Amino acid sequence: MSRFVLALLFIVVGPGAAHAQSSEPEAPSDTSVAGQDASWLFLPYLSYARDTKLAGGLVLGYYRPERPGGAASSVQSTLTVTQRRQLVVQVAPELYLDDGRWRVQGQGLISHYPNSYFGIGGDTPSSAEEPYTARYVLLDLTAQRRLRPNLRVGPRVFVRGDAVRDPEVANGDIAQGRVAGADGGLTAGVGVSLFWDARNSLYYPTTGTYAEVVTTLHSAAWGSDFTFGRIKTDLRGYRPLGPGVITGQVYTESTVGTAPFQQLPLLGGSSRMRGYREGRFRDNVFWTVQTEYRVPLFWRFKATAFASVGEVGPRIGPELVENVEVAVGIGGRLRLTDDGVHGRLDIAWSPTGIGPYVSLGEAF
After folding, report:
1. How confident is the model over 229-260, as pLDDT tens digits?
2. In CATH, which of 3.40.50.300, 3.90.79.10, 3.40.220.10, 2.40.160.50 is domain 3-15+38-360?
3. How many secondary structure helices (H) and strands (E) does the chain include?
4. What's the pTM value of the predicted model, to 2 decimals?
């Protein structure tokens, strides 16, 4: 197993009496009334991985449940440091403002982290690994105006500055500059996002549909060192089945032009194609289909089983189904707030190995 989780501690803290019983004997507990509608989550963790050695960090989350006249909102911040002096700081807001008329979503991130490049394509061998150190700062922000009850549209701004350090393979593509982005650079993009959300819950949906289409153009006209276009589609569905919920996702991402290798669509990670290291395969086009069955166990605990297939390729065509990757896994959930914020521990298997994933919130 490439990663062993040593400890995981969830601490739930509510402002004031957010999680206290009502002082009136017959009044039910209610976390959505005025002044008692927000939850703070504090998650310290400790882990071990071959590429980081000992790693520890903190997750601090603010979650405001849905209430009359206002949609649910959240801000999650993460700090990770490792024995190898790696550092990742991330802030990810999803805010519903002006009585839900506007949705502001995105992330800010600072990272100093080792990574590996295996080449471009869906059949690159593990022997092609080129370790290097990635340093980057990222700002990704979308603001969407509500047009209809479940439909929103708005602009997106994306800025990322990359530096590539310490390539360990002297004759590799990165060290020799044979791949776009090997010398780092600035990527700046503007785009449009179309968003549909008919789920019954932001944090733990059991019914409904979700769809997002995002197009972004990166151009020298607004300071980008690379010129390319990107389009992303994300379709999800949720439906009760037996004692649990069956969920499904179809996700695609593609680029046209010369994108730096760091920003090519990546297969793998904690949300899509769990079981594969993020970036193990990369190319101009990526697709994945995944499904998950979530079932309650007892108290605040739930279990899940999931499976996914996916592939990368240079373009839309036969290459996208020639080397389809497969992953399966199981997981546990712990409900941390009454409105459905869950802690997540997944164990996933793929032909490249076995790996755990620990985070707040569902994969999709």
Report:
1. 999 999 999 999 999 999 999 999 999 999 99
2. 2.40.160.50
3. 0, 20
4. 0.85
